[in-house]
Design goal:
The protein has 273 residues and is an alpha/beta fold. The protein has one domain: Phosphoenolpyruvate-binding domains (TIM Barrel, Alpha-Beta Barrel), CATH 3.20.20.60. It has 13 helices and 8 strands. An 8-stranded parallel β-barrel has the order 1-2-3-4-5-6-7-8, surrounded by 8 helices. Strand 7, helix 11 and strand 8 form a beta-alpha-beta unit. Helix 2 runs parallel beside helix 3. It is globular. Its EC number is 4.1.2.20.
């Protein structure tokens, strides 16, 4: 955990950052990836097997890497835009939450509210508990009063409806970043798996335009360095450079192919897709 949330700082200052998605629910993998030089890592509790205890263990591992000099900050993608899930992730120590399926300004406002304690007139609905990991188990007397300032909301635009409402979503106070989910977006357009289709690209451009209009950062998942460079040239500052699973499978298969060019693993995999 950080006294000042570095992810939020970078998003507000439009500083380009690179992160990695964590889907294996492994504290060892989280710590390893954090040591690799990424600016942030997102623990995926939507599509990965992570439960609340897994989140806490991985956040501890990321903090352990930071103690040894790694700069990566941890974030959590929750299973749904649900205050009970957000509360548990934040109690575990997450300051940055990635919200799936944000399709309207109302969805975005609910996401922001779920991260905030009900202090002053900020509209927060987060349940208050100081004796949790995020509050040093009750030993950090500053935590409850300072947590709202460091809360960082990243909302996923990943549907036709979300793209249509991007201007309204971008205007919601407290939304720090619009993250474009091209996989689900392509599916919602009837183009499942065609994330580079011209219609999907046009939708991405619309999100970029809406974000620029309202001075909001944009994030996206890149499956290659070349793709990441292309997005960066378009002004995307929050880029996920693949995932723990992606790097593990790519490294293993590339090594096997290099050692044995006749290795037919890729052909076997393609056959059963």
């Amino acid at each position: 955990m950080h006294l000042v949330n570095p992810i939020k700082q970078c998003l507000k200052s439009a500083t380009p950052t690179v992160g990695c998605w964590l889907t294996l629910a492994s504290p060892a993998v989280a710590e390893l990836i954090a040591h690799c030089g990424f600016d942030w890592v997102v623990i995926d509790a939507e599509h990965g097997p992570s439960d609340t205890q897994d989140l806490a263990a991985q956040l501890r591992a990321i903090d352990a890497a930071a103690f040894k000099g790694a700069r990566a900050a941890g974030a959590v993608r929750v299973t749904a835009n649900d205050p009970s899930l957000v509360k548990r992730a934040m109690d575990c120590g997450a300051q940055t939450i990635v919200f799936p399926n944000v399709n309207s300004a109302a969805d975005a406002r609910a996401a922001v509210a779920s991260m905030l304690f009900p202090l002053h007139d900020e509209g927060g609905v987060r349940g208050v508990a100081g004796m949790v990991r995020a509050g040093a188990y009750g030993l950090d007397s500053r935590y409850v009063k300072s947590a709202n300032n460091q809360a960082c909301a990243i909302v996923l635009i990943e549907s036709v409806e979300g793209v249509a409402n991007v201007d309204a979503i971008a205007q919601v106070e407290g939304v720090d970043c619009l993250f474009i989910g091209t996989a689900d977006l392509s599916a919602s357009m009837g183009l499942l798996g065609q994330t580079r289709h011209d219609k999907v690209k046009a939708a991405v451009e619309k999100v970029l335009m809406g974000a620029r209009m309202h001075s909001k950062a944009v994030g996206i998942f890149a499956t290659s360095v070349e793709e990441a460079r292309q997005y960066r040239e378009k002004g995307v500052t929050f880029i996920a450079l693949h995932s723990d699973v992606g790097w593990l499978t790519k490294g293993a298969m590339d090594a096997l192919d290099a050692l044995d060019p006749k290795n037919n693993t890729r052909l076997i995999i393609e056959k059963f897709r």
